[in-house]
Amino acid sequence: MAYRIEKDSLGEKKVPAEAYYGIQTQRAIENYPISGLRAHPVLIRAMGMIKKAAALANLELKLLDEKRARAIIQAAEEVMAGKLDHQFVVDVYQAGAGVSFHMNTNEVIANRAIEILGGRCGDYSLVHPNDHVNFGQSTNDVIPTAMRLASILLFDQLLPEMERLSRAFAKKGQEFDGILKAGRTHMQDAVPIRLGQEFAAYAVAVRRAYEGIRHAQDGLRELGLGGTAVGTGVNTHPRYQALVVQRLSEVSGQPLTPTKDMRWTMQSNLPMAAASSALRNYALELIRLSNDLRLLSSGPNTGFAEINLPALQPGSSIMPGKINPVIPELVAMVSFQAVGSDVATALAVQAGQLELNVMMPTMAWNVLHSAEILKNTTHQFSALCVEGITANRERARRYAESTVALATALNPYIGYAKTAEIVKQAIKQGRLITEIALERKLLDPKQLQKILDPRRMTEPAPPIEEALTKERRAGRAAAANGPARRRPRVAAKRKPRRKPARVRKRRR
Fold first, then answer.
1. What mean pLDDT comes out for the span 125-148?
2. Do 82 and 40 meet the contact criterion of CB atoms below 8 Å apart?
3. Are residues 94 and 201 in the same domain?
4. In this structure, are 40 and 87 located in the same domain?
5. Dist CA 359 CA 337 (whole Å)
6. DSSP-assigned beta bridge partners for residue 314
7. Residues 11, 124: one domain?
8. What is the per-residue DSSP string for 409-444?
């Protein structure tokens, strides 16, 4: 391989002759052979947008000459288009604050701009990575801006997939609305519910998580770009902060605002914590939903088997015909990773000191990685699972009619204690609640059938007045025909005892 020699403040290094990156990137390659993972493409795109916006602002302020500025802008646009992704070679685990990744960006854009101007890579007299590409900037305001902007852009890809998933659940909610089934709480039989009601609630869960991510996305729009080293704006024009954020809004197509306190945006990464937390909350809901679908589809002969998931692949290397719920399993595993990534992000967010939090590479990687895998998994969840679910109507209805919790509807008419006796007998004898209630003749059979109708129990319903009135009358009659109450005994007045004759004579 042919090399060129580059110099920095630490000395000389060989750099591949055709590489757009330079000596500082080469040092990072040697220093951080950690994971083999590279920056997310959306983060690279965001960096290209920032460098273009900065060049536009500096050109407008006449801090960069036209020729250099136009070359930098063209090179930055190529970065935005993904044409130079292969030149971003720094591991995601690297020097604090993202200095290595930032210099990788500056060097790639500088050398491509040099090439545009007719020079050879490494001839930094034409375009310098620090003096020109990085003019008026610092790692300390560029990297926070880049990871916020990248998160916004990636969330814009995730949110439509979440909308699709929510709509898929809602559609199944309508399709399954007439299917009765047993509710279950504590993994035990509960009162009936409609399968459509369960799925409609799943749609709401995804929608609420969507709203949380959208809200977190809005919190990322306040940027400290222009703060440079410690948030004071040293080495920048007084108009630069507002102008560069305005240009970045135009370049990215995103509504972005300059912060009122650049120190805060450099010290605190609370918006990234909120973004990570919103992803975690969505992941928690996905875990719950995937587990529900696995339970509802368990079987086919020895489980709930109330729904059928699309068959996507053979499920066993030894058991012929076995089909597994592979997409819900995938959803759970990906969501576990997102929850773990949030823990790493939270630890990084709290680890700042004074004017800077240097743990930003970890935040950027984990938030973007979670958003990426949740985006792709949500798409698969909708397309390959939820949209193809079918219901086993008769099996679900059989569960609805056999749940002992049907007896709950009798509480207003015969009371909790009598209802509990019916439930005990039903469990002991393996019989239906309706059979035992009819057998005991506690209520009129027609009224009883109406009271114990599983469909009626899936929505609020007024009491059946005839049955309620009859029961009240029966209660009053029972009270009236009870054992007679004894009147309290009244003590008779005692007559004074006459004294013996001897005593009377003696007194005389």
1. 98
2. no
3. no
4. yes
5. 20
6. 323
7. yes
8. GGHHHH-HHHHHHHHHHHHHHT--HHHHHHHHT-S-
Predicted confidence (pLDDT) at residue 471 exceeds the cutoff of 80:
no
DSSP secondary structure letter of residue 299 = -
Separation between Cα atoms, residue 106 and residue 164, nearest integer Å:
39
Question: Which CATH number goes with the domain that contains 13?
Answer: 1.10.275.10
Residue-wise pLDDT for 56-99, tens only, equals 999 999 999 999 999 999 999 999 999 999 999 999 999 999 99
Positions annotated as catalytic residues are 316
* Range(s) of the domain holding residue 462: 403-471
The terminus-to-terminus CA distance of the chain in angstroms comes to 155
In a domain, 326, yes or no: yes
pLDDT band at 461 (very low <50, low <70, confident <90, very high): confident
pLDDT value for 374: 98
**Given CA atoms 328, 333, 334, 339 in this order, what sign does their dihedral have?**
positive
307 bridge partner residues? 391
Kindly give, in sequence order, each residue whose CB lies less than 8 Å from that of residue 225, ignoring residues fewer than 6 positions away. Answer: 50, 137, 141, 142, 145, 241, 244, 245, 248, 258
* Residues 178-208: tens digit of each pLDDT: 999 999 999 999 999 999 999 999 999 999 9
Least confident of 142-146, 303-307, 402-406: 402-406
Q: Do 263 and 369 belong to one domain? A: yes
Paired tokens of 124: 């930094």
Into how many domains does the chain fold?
Answer: 3
List the structure tokens of 35: 């994971």
* CATH number reported for the structural domain that contains residue 308 in this entry: 1.20.200.10
Are residue 70 and residue 114 in the same domain, yes or no?
yes
Same domain? For 130 and 271 the reply is no
In this prediction, residue 54 carries a pLDDT of: 98
Q: Are residues 341 and 243 in the same domain?
A: yes
| Measured distance CA(410)–CA(414) in Å, rounded | 6
Q: Would you give the distance in Å from CA 477 to the centre of its chain? A: 59
